[in-house]
Design goal:
This protein is an alpha+beta fold. Helices cover 48% and strands 19% of the residues. The protein contains 11 helices and 10 strands.
């Protein structure tokens, strides 16, 4: 029987690797989750102990986030959801989402990710066309936030707990049961879909936001203006700022600075560069401005932040 503690340790190591992947390489996760022959995987995350948070990103897999402890904020479909223990968040493939701290509160959760090919290899099958295709990049849900004790949560919670238990025990031996639970979950979620259309205004905004997020990731180390980002998606600065805040919950400049600060925090923990060097490499033109923003976001100055994190891991 596999040991759950070992799996959580592996998950912690994976989380650190994935965070670097998200920050340094691409907010579009190109890495497939799970194995090609078994495209199902589960990770255990803790913020801020293991991660500072996940910035906005997207991937091909269907994702279920299950909160096991504390409180945090999950942004999906352009809205912030304040989540607490036993809450569930549903994220269809390709949808932009993030997980961040709510102030200084802590949060622990499971990420359950799978590709629909795990349930049905034939994309032209009845189940694929009738049920799975409904969950796509342009799927709009009544709400992705399934709150504790709601009617739907009561149905989903035992299925998710069963998945966690079977995955920890031996996911290979439990493969058929894991599939069965996922089929049940998708069955219960069918009534949560409001609409699916490639021509909706939501789809257009979603596509534009992906373009802007990728642009930020590629250019964070230099000055980025609102005018430049707006021109990228053919909007006026005013329309762009309104669209961006509606979709992310943050003003554009604050989002860019938060992204840079997360990068800086990662670099600070590596301990190989000076604070001034890190500030400039992350796109801040003033060290004092960087330190002020860093303190405001993390509650500590950069050097104190590094010491506090090192002490918690020793």
């Amino acid at each position: 029987m596999a040991d759950l503690t070992n799996k959580q340790t592996d998950s912690k190591q994976y989380s650190s690797t994935l965070q670097k992947h998200l920050y340094r390489e691409s907010l579009r996760e190109n890495k497939a989750h799970g194995k090609k022959s078994f495209p199902f995987v589960m990770y255990h995350g803790r913020i801020p102990e293991w991660l500072g948070g996940y910035p906005l990103h997207w991937h091909n897999e269907f994702e279920i986030i299950f909160i096991t402890y504390g409180e945090g904020i999950i942004n999906v479909q352009g809205k912030k959801y304040f989540c607490t223990k036993d809450d569930i968040i549903i994220i269809p493939p390709q949808q932009i989402h993030s997980i961040v701290q709510d102030g200084q509160k802590k949060i622990a959760y499971y990420n359950i990710l799978f590709d629909f090919s795990f349930l049905e290899e034939n994309p032209d099958s009845f189940c694929s066309r009738t049920f799975f295709e409904r969950f796509s990049e342009n799927t709009i849900l009544i709400t992705p936030h399934i709150k504790k004790d709601s009617e739907l949560n009561v149905k989903l919670l035992p299925l998710i707990n069963s998945l966690i238990e079977m995955y920890a025990e031996n996911y290979g031996d439990n493969a058929l049961l894991i599939k069965a639970r996922l089929f049940e979950i998708i069955h219960h979620l069918q009534n949560q879909i409001v609409s699916v259309t490639k021509n909706s205004s939501y789809a257009k905004k979603h596509s534009r936001l992906k373009k802007v997020i990728s642009f930020i990731q590629e250019n964070f180390s230099r000055p980025i203006s609102i005018e430049e980002a707006a021109e990228l998606i053919n909007l006026s600065p005013n329309r762009f700022m309104k669209m961006f805040k509606e979709q992310t919950g943050l003003p554009f400049i604050q989002y860019v600075n938060d992204y840079r600060l997360e990068l800086a925090a990662e670099s600070i923990l590596q301990g190989t560069k000076s604070i001034t060097q890190i500030a400039f490499e992350c796109g801040f033109e003033s060290t004092s401005y960087f330190i002020n923003l860093f303190h405001k976001k993390f509650g500590l100055a950069p050097v104190a932040y590094r010491k506090s994190k090192l002490n918690t891991t020793q």
